[in-house]
Amino acid sequence: MKKQRKIEKDNRDVAIYARKSRITNKGDSIGVQFKQCADYAKKELGLDEEYEFLQYEDKGLSGYFSDRPDFQRMLHDVQNGKIKAIVCYKLDRVGRKTADLIRLMDFLEMYHVNLLICSNGINTASGLYKIFIQIFAVIAEFERDTLTERIVDNMMELAKDGRWLGGNTPMGFTVCKG
Known about the structure:
By secondary structure, this protein is α/β, with parallel strands linked by helices.
């Protein structure tokens, strides 16, 4: 007679990660991200309506750098066995560098943590996720590089016209808007 292996319930929590690049008083994009992620996770993972998610958020920080405080705290919690799935609104909320996103996927796989991306309908618990994540990662990095290029070009044109490019007003000068 074969011994049946007992399947243990995974008691780790589900986390939501939200990030907003710039701090503005317009809208509540962090709140919107949390709401949409929670709705998606409840549907995808079959969670109760009252489920309490672990919440991580970084405001005013670029996705280009991975040293964001709450992002790092979340990765530490993954290592400590507290998280079984991470939900984010878009892949570029987690990161904008292809290499970093690939490393993140390997890291999450090592700790048996799924990644759900609600705007793209991706759940790494299903099969074909890796190719889609790699494609979206390349697109996110391309978008960031294009945006950076546009900003630099715009600043160069403003400088050529002798216009002030912002920052602190130099000593002895005043700003006149006109």
